[in-house]
User: Fold Precorrin-3B synthase from Blastococcus carthaginiensis.
Amino acid sequence: MSSAGPPTSPPRDRADACPGALQTHSAADGELARVRVPGGLLRADQLRVLAAAAIELGNGALELTSRGNVQLRGLRPGAAGELGDRLAAAGLLPSDSHETARNLLGSVLSGRAGGRLDARPWVRAFDAGLCADPSLAALPGRFLATFDDGRGDVAALDGDVGLLALSPGSVALTLAGADSGLRAGPAGAVALALAATRAFLAERAVQGGSAWRLAELADGRARVAARVAGARVGVPAEPRVEVPAGARVEVPAEPQVRPIGAVPQDDGRTALAAVVPLGRLTAAQLTLLADLAAEVQLTPWRGVVVPDLADGSAAALLVEAGLVLDPDSPWTRVTACAGLPGCARSLADVRADATAAVMVGSLPAGGARQHWAGCERRCGRPGGAVVDVVATGSGYRIDAPTA
Ligand code: SF4
Assistant:
């Protein structure tokens, strides 16, 4: 391990202020609450609780985030307490102290269609282990863990710590989106990921305690891997294997699959994978989803999967409700930040403008994958090559695709 090296971004001079369900953020349109949904998995009863909360406490809609979480906007002052009670009763807030740390992505359709193994038990076990460890309440709200069943979707999404199935019997630990060289079997993989999470906090403390992401630490990947390999923090339950640098795997830079439309499941049933235009689900759409399936999965590309259906006949209902199942639809290529009126920084109502451009077929850059933003911050920008459409106060500036 090299002993020194610059961090990949400047040191932070403040703690992150990521909103949570209890720690709400004051936006121009009221309080904003973010509810963590590990693995994007929501039961029907939880969908109904969220739909009711959106109507009775918020602006009637739910926003999907790029981490498969959800946001309620337009909450009245003081509503956070009641929201917290409702979420806790529905099993959506298992720990007040750890709520903002529970950013866990799992492969979409894992255990249902494709993949080398079922990553859902990893998500549940990691979440339980995280919430059970008081020290992990100190994780920054920007921390992200990914659990990829080998299909190469969420491993590409810039996780701080991740598991990537290489085969049904071998799992790689990824750190800051790259192979750490550490391996475990599926049964020991969660212990390895939790050990790496504790090692991140330990290394962060040594380096001043201000980093939000593992990639911000000097030699973060190597130092955290060395801490785990040296068992200075946490000890996975089974022997670890460390592979030489030349044998490490390439982690995909972009998700290898983003299902849209009807997907045959391994058990013969059907899943419907829909895009949610600009990531906003109405309460009526939430209720429809709850009527159709016992569980749905939110995706990191602001979509929703309705699994375990007898056939694809529910597609018509989803489309009628405003969801998109056509992989050629322009909605599959457009994202937007909150913009006006939700964000006081915004120079435009970017969501209305993006919607109008989709409806009349006038998306810029030939309809390429694009993100509309109300200011230079570009909140919610997806990873990978994306055209930026940035409000300037006198129209929009179109920036060339950047990764
Ligand atoms: S990109 Fe700017 S305008 Fe859009 S939500 Fe972020 S801060 Fe607000």
In short: The chain has three domains: 22-92+269-327, 104-247, 332-402. Helices lie at 44-57, 79-89, 120-132, 189-206, 220-229, 283-292, 315-320, 350-360. The longest helix spans residues 189-206.
